[in-house]
Amino acid sequence: MKKSCLLFLLIFSSSADDWPKFLGPTGDNISKETGLINSFPKTGPKEIFTKRVGTGYAAPSIRDGKLVIFHRASKLYKVEEGDTLETVVKFLNKELTALKAKDRLTVENLKISLENTTRRIPRGYIPLPNQIAKHFDIEIIDCLEAKTGKPLWRHAYPTSYEDPYGYNNGPRCVPLITKDYVYTYGAEGVLVCLELKTGKQIWRRDTHKDFTVVPNFFGVGSTPVLEGGLLLTMVGGQPNSGMVAFNAKTGKTVWENIGKNTWNGTPKLGWRGEPTMIWRGQEKIASYASPVIATVHGKRVAFCLMRQGLVALDPATGKEYFKRWFRARENDSVNASNPVVINDHIFFSSAYYGEGSFVLKIKKDLSGYTEVWSDQTRRIQANNPRLAEVLGLHWMTPIVHEGNIYAFSGRNEPDAKFRCVEFLTGKLLWEQDEAWQKYGPPSKKYGRGSFIKADGKLIVLGETGKFGLFQLNARKAVELASYMVPQLRYPCWAAPAMADKRVYLRSEAYLICLDLAEKR
To answer: Among 353, 464, 334, which Cα is nearest to 410's?
Structure first.
């Protein structure tokens, strides 16, 4: 038993300086890095490299000097500010070289394609000649040197995913890197295990073919997590395959749970009259939050915020400990912010239609919970059903520091607020308005954003491309430095990543590496 535990640690542990998975080494946006700068020059932090990438919302992951970025190359090229025909041709020919394709694009061929196109093309995109386009509409896993951006290997496979709401068609889930392997989960549910050294495929599961999945609003967006040699994956399969555990070495199914057996007959807490759930077999089950693994009362627990609400499971067996309904009444809504576990308390939040936030205290036998506070209870106590939520988190995961939550609240661009809230009471300590209009002039606001906590401060990337540093201060918002990164444009929805005092920022078109070290 001791030998097997030691082997697991050797396989899956990583350096504190690495960022090998979604939200960092401990899955909570916290880094142990120190010796970071506290201010920026007027030109911003030192740029180490900038790399044009395909579309997607997946942040990079970094381990042992290797960076893995997951993106998509499409038959329709997305035009970025500053693009010319020459730069487009140069970028696409690099992509063709990386794909080992013999065809090459020329400026003349691109002009002809533009002139001869008769079909309707979405705004902001240009069509490619058929001879070039046939190589694209692929999801790409690129491995780069983390310090230079130099390509090491590429793995790609075809995809036909199209976002029904007009967002980009790239992957949403962050690569997961272990000592020997890379795991990715594509927008159409393709789950792949690759050899880290070479990019060779070890195994693949097409979850939308292997399970009965009702497609989600924006494709697959819940990044899998590793626990005890199992890859815990939010598949969203009917009737009871909402969560599936795959053997991390072979890809074989080990257990599956959550769905009809979980929710059928459950009261819809917070809904008018709290009707019971009647399961019809057509429900979306997956969300856009990733499973969170934590030790609570001496046991490992997987907290899975599904579309219908929170479910606590034994990660080894899939056995359910408890559940809590948490879903907006309107159909067009999602849960997308990861739960945060602090000792035996758990915080979770939604930005849709006033659902707001909760903190629950978990019972010692893991059989259930007691509510500490919630926005719904605050409304009842105030006899005001329209009382605004103290926190409504869309896709960002908050930081909890010294008993306080730091977060960006807001569903859409006009209602973005940076807030500090007491974890155990829900009391608002301060807020900073970050509202902006995405169709107006360039904004100096962050909008909504994501954090890294490191070296006693918050490292912030706003959706507008604004990058900054803030004090961890419960009395007021104190910005130490800020910089509008020229290459970044809305939407910067991928969380920042950091390794070896280098921060990696990703937009829909660029991967940028900035140096935050005080000294090198």
So the answer is: 353
